[in-house]
Amino acid sequence: MSDRTRKLAWAAVVVASATALSRLAGLAREVLVAAVYGVDPAYNTLISVSVVPNLVQQLFADAALSAAFVPVFTALLVAGRRERAFELGGELLGFMGVVVGGVVTVLFIAAGPVARALFPELTATPEGAVLAARLLRILLPSVLFFSVAGVMSGVLYSLERFTMPAAVSIFWNLTIIAAILLFQDAIGVDAMAWGMLLGTVLQVVLLQAALRGSGRLLPKLGFRDPELHHVLLLMVPITITLGMLNFNSLVGTYFAQYVSDRAAAEIGYAFRLYQLPQGIFAVTIGTVLFPSLSRFAAEQRPDAFRDTVAMGVRQMVFVSLPFMAWFAVMPEGFVRLVYERRQFGPTATEEVAAALAFFTVGLAFANANIMLNRAFQSLQQPWLPLWVGVGNLVLNAVLCWALHGPLGVPGLTLSMATVSVVNFFVLLILLRRRLGRVDGRRIAASAGRALVAAAALAAVSAAVWHALGGLASGGFWSQLVALTAAVGAGGATYVGLARLMRLEELTLVWRALRRRPEGEAAVEPGVGG
User: Fold this and answer.
1) pLDDT score at 528
2) Coil, strand or helix: which one is 121?
3) How buried is 117 (Cβ within 10 angstroms: 0-12 exposed, 13-18 middle, 19+ buried)?
4) Do the Cβ atoms of 169 and 26 come closer than 8 Å?
5) Left (φ > 0), alpha (ψ -120 to 50) or beta: where does 216 sit?
6) Is residue 426 situated within a structural domain?
7) Which of these, 17, 100, 152, 220, has the minimum number of CB atoms within 10 Å of its CB?
8) What is the 8-class DSSP label of residue 119?
């Protein structure tokens, strides 16, 4: 294993650890939110209106911004133009301040009409309209802070310093938890909204601290800079492509208001559990491999680029399949253990579990899509994923319209899952045309063997879960024992069969977890945030 491979392997461990802590903090936040708000209509309104700032954030900031910025910033570093790279980062900060600040200001002023136009059912009463507008105004400024954080994270990613961008979400979640605990009794659901805003401010502060000593990243106006124009041109298709996720979420939320006044909240709870393996594994793999893909593309090394993409897809499928199996055969166990207490009752558990089970259909495909999108972004050819995203948006709208009536909330989550499946196969075909081949047979063979192991996992976990039915229907600790036993037995089966079938993906994960690179003490500050 080369020094660079060992460095990236250790970086993956660091990022996975930080991301896992972030997800645990997020899980603690969701436990608290479920206990305090349940599926209350006011909380349902917060979840609904948050789609608007989330959409703007995806279009102008966060992952979309980094995806366009990292390849260009990395290319400047490879060319030895470090000072110029940081100057470009400052110009991008200035651009975001002007453009995103303007968009946020307009939406802030028009919050009332925007809420009424998008959510006519939720704003049908004067009280509902006032609540929706107020919550939207609290959340909107966070988009500006996220845009600043996106530039800072892009610089850190290009420098292969991954820890702080992964860790800031921990503090975001803890800020929300503190706000709910301190202010819920006084201001209700507004406490969570304020916590979300203050958490984004803290993220910027922490990222700025991580950048000290790396270079001067100061905002400046440079709208005529051709390299800034190049980044912005790349951003157009990338931001819209990534924003399609939130466009699809907006479509689902729009139809959810016609299902019930708690449907958006139920989808949100299901999505948090669905997102857990994505946040810990898929985002980690995509984040760590993205700078390498950008370098291979800049250095014109197609074989290394192709092998890295294929390896990333195989690993994402391998780590996703166990969660697909668990969420499919015993979704109520996860929902009950995490959420069911105080304001979150058995009826909510049943409905959220059904939504989670249908979400799960697209989990492995959604995770693999992260890798395929990263591939196109690294090639600085993002237009094809954009057109695929447009087609998927239309498909999602049609499916939501057709399924929300007969199936309710599960119909909406099934629509989103189906879109992920279609998106994966279309992107894979397009990437194959671009690269000549994508090692598809190896991906299919690996996925097929992993699927056999996942089927065995599902059978074992389901058998243990049903055998421990008495514990599963008991209190928290009894449920925890039953779920841990089912997950542990199934997980051991999966790993055992993967070893028996000599799945390379298991070996890669095992090496990353058990083997810290030699001599990394001097390198670690560059890997960390």
Assistant:
1) 28
2) coil
3) exposed
4) yes
5) beta
6) no
7) 220
8) -
Residues of the chain with pLDDT under 70: 1-16, 60-67, 160, 215, 236-246, 278-284, 286-288, 290, 380-383, 470-473, 508-529
At residue 181, what is the residue type? L
Task: Tell me, yes or no, whether 146 lies in a domain.
Answer: yes
The encoded tokens of residue 481 equal 């024992």
The strand pairing partners of 332, in sequence order, are none
pLDDT digits (tens, 9 = 90+) for 161-213: 777 887 888 899 999 999 999 998 899 899 999 999 999 999 999 988 888 87
**What would the two tokens of residue 407 be?**
């199936």
Q: Which of 369, 352, 240 is nearest to 316 (CA)?
A: 369
Contact 240, 197 (CB under 8 A): no
Q: By C-alpha distance, which of 470, 455, 460, 464 is closest to 501?
A: 455
Query: Total domain count for the chain?
Result: 1
Let me know if residue 141 belongs to a domain. yes
The rounded distance, in Å, linking the Cα atoms of 529 and 524 is: 9
The span from the CA of 380 to the CA of 294, in Å, is: 9
Residues in the chain: 529
Report the C-alpha gap between 64 and 58 in whole angstroms: 6
Instruction: Return d(Cα 396, Cα 414) in angstroms, integer.
Output: 10
Contact by Cβ (8 Å): 377, 240: no
Phi, psi of 341 (to 5 degrees): -170, 150
In a domain, 305, yes or no: no
pLDDT of residue 190: 93
**Token pair of 202, please?**
């803290």
Amino acid identity, residue 84? Answer: R
| Cβ burial, residue 452 (10 Å; 0-12/13-18/19+) | middle
pTM for this structure? Answer: 0.71
Q: Which two tokens stand for residue 252?
A: 């689902």
Beta-bridge partner residues of 341:
344
- Domain containing 52 equals 41-261
Residue 333: count of CB within 10 angstroms of its CB: 23
What tokens appear for 365 in the block? Answer: 């495909």
**Token match 């294929």: residue?**
310
- What is the separation of C-alpha 383 from the centre of its chain, rounded to a whole number of angstroms? 21
- For residue 5, what pLDDT is reported? 58
Tell me the three state secondary structure of residue 260: coil
Distance CA 489, CA 493 (A): 6
- CA–CA distance, 352 with 267 (Å, rounded to integer): 7
Q: How far is CA 13 from CA 9, 20, 344, 488, in A?
A: 7, 10, 35, 22
User: Any idea which residue has 């994402």 for tokens?
Assistant: 316
Count Cβ atoms within 10 A of the Cβ of residue 224 and give its class: 0-12 exposed, 13-18 middle, 19 or more buried: exposed
* End-to-end Cα separation, the chain, in angstroms: 24
DSSP-based three-state secondary structure for 344:
strand
